[in-house]
Amino acid sequence: MLSRQFVRENPDAIREALERRGIDDVGFEDLLAVDEEWRELKSRGDDLRHERNQVSNRIGELKREGNEADAEAAIERSQQLKETLQEIEARADELEADLEQRLLELPNVPREEIPTGQNERDNEEVRRHGFETARELPADVTPHYDLGEDLDVLDFERGAKVAGGGFYFLKGDGARLEHALVRFMRDLHREQGYTEVFPPIPVNTTAMTGTGQLPKFADDAFRVGARNDQPYDDDDLWLCPTAEVPVTNMYADDILLRDDLPIKHQAYTPNFRREAGEHGTETRGIARVHQFNKVELVNFVEPDDSDDRLESLVAEAEAVLRRLDLPYRVVLLCDGDLTFASAKTYDIEVWAPADDMAHGPDRGGRWLEVSSASNFEAFQARRIGLRYRPERHESAEYLHTLNASGLALPRVLIALLEYYQNEDGTVTIPETLRPYMDGQERIEGHDPVGESAVGAGKRE
Question: Residue 110 domain-assigned?
Fold first, then answer.
């Protein structure tokens, strides 16, 4: 959330930020009008309270002087002032609630240094890694969704049977590989100084609002016990869309000390999003699904440290792909592709070679976002009331929050299945993951079960 003072003092900067983001439906001019009327009422209310105090004092003086007529007139005026004040305060309360809601719908201001653009095509590539030493690939790389079914490690049909489209089963070595990735990431981030937490999976409306998921992205979330289009309140629960929500809100309404900072938390959770499976060609396979696992990195820092921390955060997430020897790139998001709460974001995109396969990222394959590393500055902290004291005797101020995925697992799994597959249809397990899979070096597949397997042909 942007502060009222910042909005009042920098309306042109807000207008420019909205234009850069391509947003024109937040009613910013109406917000300014509501704020102006609220301030006028507050000022008028202060004047009337001052007059009422003077009248009250005058009533006592008039009674002591025996001037009953003037005292009665003063009492009548005091009652008029009271009634007028009640009307003004009631209207001011209505305006303040409206103003708070409008501020919640106002996105963060993009940093000046990020690229100007409308969408992901305008993002700026910062660096690539791993292509100089890339392994030799089969002449035709099989897409993960076909290979996963051939090896019987992915089962989309049975996933849809129990939960609907956008859900799937991981089986056998596929499930073991997923668990291995989670354990590896947790160990790596522990080496990087992260304290692990395991948060609640349901989160309430207050928490979702605090990190910016509500009200903007209500339609994308899984709500517990009610339809998304019904009114909701602070007691409602939602399935966790990202561990950013519960972990950031751990410290809601707290005042930390400088000695507490920086705080670095990591959290593994399953995550749930409706929007994830609704992007055309992405619906095939596990690139966009409604449930996915992720290890999240959440940082709390002093404002002066957040720029440097963002760069370090990107490097910490990159380390996962470097140790897995997966080719990837880092891009700086343009203002039009920036998320609602972020002031600056880097995406880390792993290379999945199967689509339109050739021999390099410019001749085939596709980029899959596996992490967004964002600096929210004080935007989330102000929404959740999280502050810190630079010194114990100093006034509390809002700190900065940052987060990144370290990493989102379905897409990492896609890259592993496609990049590490062999001519014979097996998949080599990266050396980094072998200790987490009891030394296993390859995924060779399993025999499918049931009558449907007969037509597909069981392995002999």
Answer: no
In the chain, the amino acid numbered 242 is T
**Residue whose C-alpha is closest to residue 448's, from 15, 244, 155, 89:** 155
Higher pLDDT, 435 or 392: 435
Check 20, 288, 309, 383 and give the catalytic one.
288
More confident residue, 283 or 70: 70
CA dist., res. 62 & res. 60, Å (int): 6
- At 13, which CATH number? 1.10.287.40
Host domain of residue 10: 4-104
Angle, vertex CA 119, rays to CA 238 and CA 9, nearest 5: 75
The one catalytic residue in 21, 52, 102, 273 is: 273
Structure tokens at 324: 């897995």
Give residues with Cβ within 8 angstroms of 110, minimum separation 6. 17, 20, 21, 335, 338, 343, 344
CB 179 within 8 A of CB 165: no
Residue 369: active-site member: yes
Is 405 an annotated catalytic residue? no
In DSSP terms, 329 is beta-bridged to 128, 349
Annotated catalytic residue 411: yes
Contact 373, 346 (CB under 8 A): yes
Q: Are residues 58 and 187 in the same domain?
A: no
Calculate the alpha carbon distances from 155 to 59, 96, 146, 152 in Å. Answer: 84, 52, 10, 7
Phi, then psi, of 427 in degrees rounded to 5: -130, 125
Q: Let me know whether 255 and 331 are in one domain.
A: yes
* Catalytic residue selected from 274, 382, 383, 411: 411
Tell me which of 282 and 6 has the higher pLDDT.
6
Within this chain, do residues 51 and 182 fall inside the same structural domain, yes or no?
no
Asked if the structure places residue 459 within a domain, the reply is no
Mean pLDDT lowest among 59-73, 105-119, 219-233, 327-341? 59-73
Computed from CA positions of residues 335, 341, 346, 349, in that sequence, does the dihedral angle turn out positive or negative? Answer: negative
Contact 255, 388 (CB under 8 A): yes
Report the amino acid identity of residue 32: L
- Rounded to whole angstroms, the Cα distance separating 378 from 375 reads 9
Strand partners, 293: 270
Beta carbons of 30 and 106 less than 8 angstroms apart? no
Residue of 371, 372, 374, 405 with catalytic role? 372
pLDDT, tens only, 10-20: 999 999 999 99
Q: Hey, what amino acid is at 203?
A: V
Q: What pLDDT is recorded for position 455?
A: 53
Q: Is the dihedral of CA 409, 410, 412, 416 positive or negative?
A: positive
DSSP 301-316: E-GGGHHHHHHHHHHH
